[in-house]
Amino acid sequence: MFKRVLIANRGEIAVRMVRACRDLGIAAIAVYEPGDEGALHVRLADEAYPIMAQLGYRDPDAMLAAARTSKVDAVLPGYGLISEHPGFAQACEAAGIAVVGPGSTVLSRVRDKVGAIAHARAVGIPTTQPSSRIFMPDEAQALLSEADSVGYPLVVKACAGGRGRGTFVARGPDDLLGVVRRSSAAAQSVYLDAQVYLEKAVLPSRYIEVPILGDHHGNLIHLGERDGSIQRNTRKVIEETPAPNLSQAQREAIWATAIQVARLFSCRSACTIEFVLDDEGNHFFTEVKPRLQVEHPVNEMVTRIDVVREQLRIAAGLPLGFAQEEVHLQGHAIFCRINAEDPWRGYLPSPGHITGFRIPGGPNVRVDTYAYAGAEIPVRYDSLLAKLVVWGPTREECIRRVHRALQEFQITGVQTNLALLWLILNDDAFIAGTYTTEFSRRRLLEMPPVSDYTTDLAAIVALAYLQRTQAAHRAIPEAFTSGWHRDSRRLPQ
Amino acid sequence: MRRFFVTINENDFEVEISGSPNIEGWIEVQVNGEPVRVRLPWSATSAHSAWAMVGNRPHEILIDHDLHWIQTTRGRHNVQIRDRDTPISRPRSGDGRVKAPIPGLIARILVEAGQYVEVGQPILVLEAMKMQNEITAPRSGTISMLNIQPGQSVKLHELLIEIS
Q: Domains of chain A, with CATH numbers?
């Protein structure tokens, strides 16, 4: 097993990976950009090294230099940043440093999304229908004529990154180029990759994905499926496993295809095979995510498998310690992304100083976060603040437990989407488990009918008004009121 | 006795507050004629979380500084309050000055100086926290000032565009 591992990331996932190393008795070596040295992943690490390059965490050369300087024997890339960079993986392999992941060959193969779909289709795997090639955003004429042959509505997808960011629907030639520009700009700013491709839209659809683990000894298993169809503002916010409203036969068919795809691409370590389901329940392969995913803890909850631990063991050449029959999918798990953003103000990011941070507790509640009371949420990184993962023996009990965990969770100083998660959880389509990706267009019920709750709020509001007018215009520093404004009192749909 | 008309997301309530808080901080309140005792510890920093007790029911709340909304675990609710005895007029907001709501980078400018814009129309894209954030016009009018460039970094509350 490794002795020293470089944590090539930041934020909650870096904290998650430091924890996995510590649990295995491995020294965790952090990196930091200037300004990020006080972050939690640095505080918890055994050693920390600065990354001074302009691109910071996204600079593969600087990251390799940090790996050499710190004399680690492996690198844990996590998700985002350099995790899908074939050149980085190759350079590490050449330098004799293990990269925890599927390896540079797999990264290169699945990075060509259009080629990957064609490859799967050639061996008879049902797939989505992509464009014939990948495009740069300025190829206007080529994009328009390609879109005609793919057919509208279609999905414009950035080649880099996850399903939420950089994925937008174009309903006709009039909005195609605008959608391409948005998608491309989003991916360029995060992943430094402006390329896009088109895919025939399946509407309504469900996003189902299957995380897999593969070792270097031919063992390959899946950890059940999950549903990531609940989105707001084009980003996934709630995921759950098992996916609701699927028959056991459908589930098994999806798992079998996932394993078939994983074998086809020689997936090792942790990868995720992503599918789109149409309204008849047919599943179509769409892409391979060759890395740990943000939402991996939801499958950890139902399998009791520590995915990052397994990744480290696999990278060290050890065989998987269990077979598929020994993976028991027990109960139900729900995963919520808590973002520093204001859903009532167009999802505007809300960086700043966290003044209060109360984490939910109790049985079967897990929070992965880099935040704490007193932490700074910097403006230059992603708004993902915390991940809430809850388990219950049944879906119904799990939903109830998420409710109570959301009530316990309190964050002050920055605005968050906690109350939005509550509204989603109370939506009929969510409770019934019959939602699709069309959920993002649903209007959420913002106020229950008149009840004790509403009359109590009326009493509180009147009293607050009285207190304030009697306090005779006490000066309130702007720091306390900034980020709050009257123009955002309705949730955008 | 003070009487208020309170509207919370389209539901109307009449609230009467009589007397002053007792030694423990409880005050007698009537909502639509129903008496209830309320405790609301005073907090000057309203954007921080507050706690209140109404009868036997505890509530954790966040109250907007200008009392335009109240937020709980269950969502953010619009509030309107009218004091029957001392009507007040609120300062008008939306004077047409568009300031940076967060520090960031100007990704794109979608309007030109002199152009007429409708309220709610996207006028620029501000990149922050790895997101492209569309900033919309706070009112209808003509772009009378525009002194930013794409690629420029802007500070919190920096004046970007003015609509008159």
A: 4-100 (3.40.50.20), 129-200 (3.30.1490.20), 206-441 (3.30.470.20)
